Target: 5-methyltetrahydropteroyltriglutamate--homocysteine S-methyltransferase
Amino acid sequence: MIKAPFRADHVGSFLRPERLKKARLQKQNGELTAEQLRSIEDEEIIRLVEKQKEVGLQAVTDGELRRAWWHFDFLGGLIGAEFYETENGLKFHGVETRAHGVRVTGKLDFGKHPFVEDYKFLHSIAGDHVAKFTIPSPNMLIARAQVDKQVYPNQEELVDDLICAYQKAIKAFYDEGCRYLQLDDTSWASLFSEESRQKLKENGQDPKELVQLYAKVINDSIADKPEDMVITMHICRGNFKSTYTSSGGYDHASEVIFGGLNVDRLFLEFDDERSGGFEPLRHINRSNLQIVLGLITSKFGDLENPDLIKARIKEASKYVSLDQLCLSPQCGFSSTEEGNLLTEEQQWDKVRHVIKIAQDVWS
Model:
């Protein structure tokens, strides 16, 4: 395939190099200036991009190396939103994140966002490779942000401004040359299991209404995207220090996800039993919707049996054409700066594993 996503693709984030971790601490302690830290980030991103090219990836990212979080950094950079310290972190299975969050304190908009400059740097070093950029889905602000009710007394006004902000963001990235943009989204996972759906109901939310809201926000946000821009969405069940937040197959939201979203591609987790089976793929009703099967785990270093992965790809092809399928890790390797519990060499072995299996299947 010559257009993103590729038969062998990846979600986007990579483990932070030790030099970069040290530099971020030095900046925090006042031992480095913001300019000095950015210079180190530039150097490490150049190395990372070259490594991605070396192992054989066709799309390259900046690894999210400038970010602490996969979502809060972007959301906190929107006009009307801010990054802040919360009382408690996000709870994952057996571990809790740092106590950070995003709150909405004014009318939402998209202005001079630092991520645009981050993309410009990636674009400048991508060369003949496709520069892929990742940002959180607009649904993440709905799902995660604390909203000042005096600013937005009702959700409809918030949603309208959020959609407008994302439309401006997409245009800003496009104007700088971005043709491969990915929306990362864990909000859908709250709709998957009976346990999580019950929690929504206890909080006064209707899962059936929520799935329609999430679809509307995505579709309206990307409605004006240019024809030559590929917008994908990665649906995730949580990824922090090799653990997760939720389980459940796609069944409860499958008709909307696979039959009602207007994204070009979907990156889907299918690396273990928490993700359910492939049956929900039967709701795909477009021949131009590409499905990227996340069958290789990014959480641990052991390599999967390639024959079992090929068998699972064949099983998925019972529900959607093999021509519409691709392969990737189920998530990034470092959704936060802490990273998953594997080494950098294991990380690259995983990427090579994806590429080799994809070559065997689609050659």
